[in-house]
Amino acid sequence: MLPEVLINHAALLIALKAHSPAKPEKPEPKLPWHITPREREACLALSDMSVRRHDNKWIAHRLGVTEGSVKVYLFNLSRKTGLDRVGLALLGLVLRSMDEELRKCA
Fold first, then answer.
1. Rounded to two decimals, what is the model's pTM?
2. Are 16 and 27 in contact (CB under 8 A)?
3. Domains delineated in the chain
4. What does the alpha-carbon distance between residue 97 and residue 106 come to, in Å, rounded to a whole number?
5. Which residues in 65-103 are b (16+ Cβ under 10 Å) and which e?
6. What are the tens digits of pLDDT across the range 51-96?
7. Residue 54 burial (CB < 10 Å; 0-12/13-18/19+)?
8. By the 8 A CB rule, do 39 and 53 touch?
9. Are 51 and 9 in contact (CB under 8 A)?
């Protein structure tokens, strides 16, 4: 499953770089799953490379929610994507990269 996500991400990046309209448009990348804003935040926090600890307690503190909420967010993401915790961290890196590419296009 993860290689497909990375392949889709690579294709999106190539399409974004190849597309240079006269008038800038905001591209709308599509993921194969619906991810809630909180699930996305938890995934991004899980992929934060600036810290060594990525436990649920740290993520909960960062998001300002309970540890139980983080467990639910990550469980739902895992169920939707079929990825384990490491895969979710890699997905967070892909999402972060997509956000950076979109900011460059805006």
1. 0.65
2. yes
3. 2-22+34-105 (1.10.10.10)
4. 14
5. beeebbeebbebbeeebebeeebbbbbbbbbeebeebee
6. 777 789 999 999 999 999 999 999 999 998 888 888 888 888 888 8
7. middle
8. no
9. no
